[in-house]
Amino acid sequence: MNPFRTSGAALRLSSLALAAALATQAGAQSITLQPAPQQQSTDRVASAAVPMADRGTGLTAAPSNEAPQATPDRPGAADNVPIIRLPAMPGMSGTPETTGSTGGGTVMLDALPVADRASIGMRAANHTQPAPAEIPRKAEWVMPLMPADGIPPRQVSTGASMPQPGIIRLTGEIAEAHFLLDMPATEENPAELVLNLRSSVNVLPDASSITVRVNDQPPVTLPLDKLGPFEPLRLRNPGLQTGRNDIRIEVTQAHRIYCGPDASFDTWTEIDLGSSGVSVPADSLPLNGDGFLAAVRAQTALTRSIEVLGDDEENLAAIEEISRYLGASAGWAPRIKFGSFYDVGNGSPERARIAIIKSDRDAVTFRRGAQGAIVMLVEHTDGAAPDFSGILPAPPAPAVVNAAQVGRATTFAELDVPLVIGNNHYFRKDVPFVLPDDWLLMASQKARIDLYYGYSNTLAEGSMLLVKVNGETVQMLPLDVDGGDIKPRLEIPFPANILNAGINRISFEMIVPGDPADLQCVPRATDMLVILGDSSITIPGSPSMTRNDMRTALDRMSGENVIIPTPARSDPDRDAALLMPFAMRFQPLTREGSASVLNVITPQFVDAVPTGDTGLKRRVLQQVLTGVQVNFESPALQPIVVPQKNAAPAPSFRLSMTNDTVDTAAGADEDAAEPMLAGLFDLPNMWATGVAQFERLRDFASADDPDLTTWLARRTGEAVLMQLDPEDPNNLWLVVRPTADMNEIAERIDEFRLDGHVKGNLAVLSSDGTWETWNAGWHPRLAEPLEAGNIRTVLGNYASWSPITFTALTLLLALVSAVPALIYVVSTRRKGSRT
């Protein structure tokens, strides 16, 4: 008789119940093994907790001190045989083998053999009963701060930046940041708001402080004295409310030794978003869309990633839809990691998880896992994406840059910059705006900035303000004379050809030396720089013209239009890993025009990339991403030149004693001269030679960069972004290194397209995160009829695009125009006339 024989009816588990347990990690909290105290055995009966894979079943083995119960129909129970309690699942109720009133029944195993029980009792005599297990404390989560204006730039400058994932840095003498915090409904409001922060050792605590304003509550100012590792700064009774809270933080930081622009960068405070916020009970988040998104934000701030569980290879459509929705709704794009229901967990706490299973219906439900995580269980049919409308909160509209009106003045206030105040010794402020996609001026037209500004009358000598447009300085203004008030309107004209269609930026960069530079800055009572929102920019109109490059397509790109071409689709898991980072991050920057498409492939599929007339060798494109350099100066790649053999001496002969020796080589030279002269009148040859020379002249005159194959052969990178087909400007291609981090590449592309002066048709992402671009030099295209009102501007654009080509065409037009006049003069001249 098998001592561990059990009843089949008692242990029958339905497949549906098991799938639910695997997906949600829910169910009973433990499996309890209960031997009698005198029969404990180290090899047959477990007397301590036996951990299980929490991810797989959500069940955890734990000790129990309950006394075993006997039943009339199971005499083995009176003999203290082990008892195993399993969770109550479908198919396990209503059997004679289950007893007790607990949530899961009690399954009785057959009694052990007598010999085994005796030996176990002898070995267990010296063992003591295990101590009762401690009741775990109620789990708490930190609801983190979330940047209100999107992810700050990675590059450190004065103000807010994010040099490391999840770490906000506030740099400069005065810097501020705006955060949001979602607060679930709890029995009582949190007693404190925690900011986990640290400051540079250059910060002087006695003259530095941090000011926190929560919603409409009065601001609270605390000392800024955390100069070592991250330490919590606790704000008592912060006045938080259920729902979304608005939190503004401003730091005032004084350098302990120096004063000046360099000192501005040396004073900073960092806030760890993952551990800053308020602690709430883990079960306070509701099991609905709002609670799930709040858990996603908490998980993203903690680890920057969220796990997607699924073993079905047809989950790609569902994963893409989830990615796009989370990217728009979660505040900032979390990174996705894939897992299986049967993977062993690593024990790290998780707040949110997504489980995708194939089903005969499309449904989205929410459950709570064994560790407290809110699990979104997505059921989908073959190839169908779930519908999140009505289940998850509607995502906010993507933030877009305001457009500047062409032909009239557009104020800074209309561009959402009502006032600019600078109080750092190095200060920079950007004013972004958008121009229409068909705006193009390449000649000498002028745009104008009308500036209303003022500055303090106590700035040090050498203080200046640089006014820049798309990174080019158009005006330098001194700030060390006649300060103290708002100046009259200052007109700043600048070349309109430094603007481009799409996103542009006006930048104000202030530099104020220390006075003196080797001592602490004197506390100020006045603002350094003020720029009013009445300042404006006036941009002249242009005919409807476009210049094919990547910029317009990048501005129109959205996550739903990032695809993998059909020939490149193979492994669903790999495809999902490629697409999800882009789907979660990309939002269109402009509302104009149709959305562009980004095709993502790996090097083995580069044959699908259209290269137009660029002459790109696909082998070279593959080598850029594999790190193999092509040396075009190598003798192996040079044209093969067959050396001429030394000619044998021409034979000579004499026919008479009085004649000189005849050299046949001389005759050959004479014969060779005739074809040379004949070639001067060979019209087909002349035409072919002329065409070849014109093409070389055209390439020299119009191409902005060298041959693409040569340019690429000297570079390596993580990814290549290109648009090489002028007939399809909205179709972008991204070729990525197989081992590249797709989350990192998506972030870099998002930063690249926000650059105000992106131009070119191909860009290589280097391993250091920088971009190098190549321009095909394609001619502008006119998108409206040529009329008397626009012909001057159109010709000016073409002349600026290629001055040599335009000059050559003008001379050709003049020559063609002179031929009829010459024919007329010759034909009308009277016979015999000398005039």
Automatic annotation (TrEMBL):
It is found in: Cell inner membrane; Cell membrane. Pathway: Glycan metabolism; bacterial cellulose biosynthesis. Residues 1-28 form the signal peptide. The keyword Nucleus does not apply. Keywords: c-di-GMP, Cell inner membrane, Cell membrane, Cellulose biosynthesis, Membrane, Signal, Transmembrane, Transmembrane helix. The chain crosses the membrane at residues 801-826. It is a single-pass membrane protein. Binds the cellulose synthase activator, bis-(3'-5') cyclic diguanylic acid (c-di-GMP). Belongs to the AcsB/BcsB family. Residues 704-829 form the Cellulose synthase subunit B-like C-terminal domain. This is Cyclic di-GMP-binding protein. GO terms for cellular component: plasma membrane. Residues 55-81 are annotated as: Disordered. Pfam families: BcsB, BscB_a-b. GO terms for biological process: cellulose biosynthetic process; UDP-alpha-D-glucose metabolic process. Tightly associated with the cellulose synthase catalytic subunit. Its main location: membrane. InterPro entries: BscB-like_C, Cell_synthase_bac.
